Amino acid sequence: MATELITLAGHEQVVFCTDPDTGLRAIIALHDTALGPGLGGTRFHPYASMDQALADVLRLSRAMTSKNAVAGLDHGGGKGVILGDPNRDKTPELLRAYGRFVESLGGRYVTACDVGTYVADMDVVGESTRWATGRSPERGGAGDSSVLTAYGVFQGMRAAAQHVWGEPTLAGRRVGIAGVGKVGRRLTDQLLEDGAQVVVTDVNPDAVRDLVARHPSVCALNDVDDLVREELDVYSPNALGGALDEVTVDLLRARIVCGGANNQLVSEGHGGTAERLRERGITYAPDFLVNAGGVIQVSDELHGFDMERARRRTATIFDHTLEVLRSADAEDVTPAVAADRLAERRIAAGGPRPWLPAGEHRDT
Ligand SMILES: NC(=O)c1ccc[n+]([C@@H]2O[C@H](COP(=O)([O-])OP(=O)(O)OC[C@H]3O[C@@H](n4cnc5c(N)ncnc54)[C@H](O)[C@@H]3O)[C@@H](O)[C@H]2O)c1
User: Fold this and answer.
1) What is the CA(344)–ligand 1 centre distance, in A?
2) Is 146-337 a domain of CATH 3.40.50.2000?
3) 79 is an active site residue
4) Distance, CA 115 to ligand 1 centroid (Å)?
5) In this predicted model, what pLDDT tens digit does every residue of 14-52 receive, in sequence order?
């Protein structure tokens, strides 16, 4: 089962890591390093089995190859998963053991935060490897990546507005935000500043209460079902994956979908949700394109973190989104396909695989 999965997905390298002393069980997957070292976060999750963890890390690392390529980063796709309950099994010793496995790859894999891992965890992982990003500013890190994730989503949304309405602004538009956690609430700040009306929903009532206390003009709805049915110009998923299924797409009244959540399309590829959106005349700004600000932020850490440099780079999400939406129209394909093609072109122009750290290339 394992070898079949790996071969099918075309991964360069998959490393199974175990450390009996700390109970660590982890997998690191490098999908494609044509553009440079694999970069992607580490997910800490109570997987039901090793096979389930493997399937997840293969899928996630592959998605990072595309995300890093369209973001214009010199990084390939990589991802790590640690098997276990982060609330019960996460210890400093286990994180340091994981860091040693990351270090053992000599810089071919660069890690960061993901679901179940936080800035403080990357500080600990970083005690045993040079290749941990998303650390705290006190340790020279980039800190909370949602800052530039939200900024990038805002840039993607401005580009979609330019494409659809001819103006790169959300002023006077009604934007619905599903999920006002770290990304959604920062996005709300920027939209309000731009002059948009914002409608939100979140399963966590505290998150909504805090936001409305800060911004009394924000309107809160009961749940995502209500938000989807609302008269909106833009719908922005910023909670969990799988936000766009067929039912949701059929109910949507917005002209644009653009949000930070990962893996929004429930059904990918031919006949999938992206095509349904297109049939309904809804412009979809691909998630992995517009939410790349976070990975841009943490990648900057490898060069001595500079927030302004990372912000300038994230601002290019505006141009990339516009380019993708225009080429989707020109090539008569969905924006998801156009973004994949952009990634493929960049990867095809990359170097030989596997990428090796400087000074370790060998001519044979
Ligand atoms: N933080 C980043 O840098 C980053 C980068 C890229 C992608 N993303 C993606 O963006 C999304 C949001 O990330 P985040 O860091 O803000 O996470 P978060 O956990 O801070 O916020 C998510 C919010 O969504 C809410 N939520 C969960 N289920 C919901 C539902 N069914 N309906 C309404 N609200 C619901 C939660 O209560 C929470 O407030 C995730 O999909 C994440 O994978 C985040």
Assistant:
1) 28
2) no
3) yes
4) 10
5) 999 999 999 999 999 999 999 999 999 999 999 999 999
**Which tokens belong to 305?**
């973190």
Dihedral pair phi/psi, residue 174, rounded to 5°: -105, 115
Q: List, as one string, the DSSP characters of 1-65.
A: -HHHHHHHHT-SEEEEEEETTTTEEEEEEEEE-TTSSEE--EEEE--SSHHHHHHHHHHHHHHHH
Residue in 70, 199, 202 to alter for ligand 1 test, most ligand atoms within 8 A of Cβ:
202
Q: What is the pLDDT of residue 361?
A: 55
Among residues 67, 79, 90, 182, the one annotated as catalytic is 79
CB 196, CB 254: distance < 8 Å: no
pTM for this prediction:
0.94
Which residues lie closer than 8 Å to 54 by C-beta, 6 or more apart?
2, 5, 6, 14, 27
Q: Does domain 2-136 have CATH number 3.40.50.10860?
A: yes
Which residues, 6+ apart, have CB-to-CB distance to 267 below 8 Å? 245, 246, 273
Dist. CA 74 → ligand 1 center (Å): 27
Domains of the chain, by residue range, sit at 2-136, 146-337
Q: Quickly state the pLDDT bin for 364 (edges 50, 70, 90).
A: very low
Distance in angstroms (rounded) separating the CA atoms of residues 60 and 71: 16
Q: Tell me whether domains 2-136 and 146-337 share a fold.
A: yes
Q: Name the H helices within 166-301.
A: 182-194, 205-214, 224-229, 246-251, 273-279, 287-290, 293-300
**pLDDT tens, 286-324?**
999 999 999 999 999 999 999 999 999 999 999 999 999
> 266-291, pLDDT tens digit by residue?
887 777 899 999 999 999 999 999 99
User: Which atom, in ligand 1's list, is nearest to the CA of 237?
Assistant: 11
Average confidence (pLDDT) over 74-93: 98
CA distances from 49 to 53, 185, 246 (A): 6, 35, 30
State which ligand 1 atom lies nearest to the alpha carbon of 181.
21
Name 24's Cβ contacts closer than 8 Å, sequence gap at least 6: 17, 18, 82, 94, 97, 98, 101
* Ligand 1 pocket residues where CB is under 6 Å: 145-146, 149, 178-184, 201-204, 207, 224, 238-241, 260-262, 291, 294
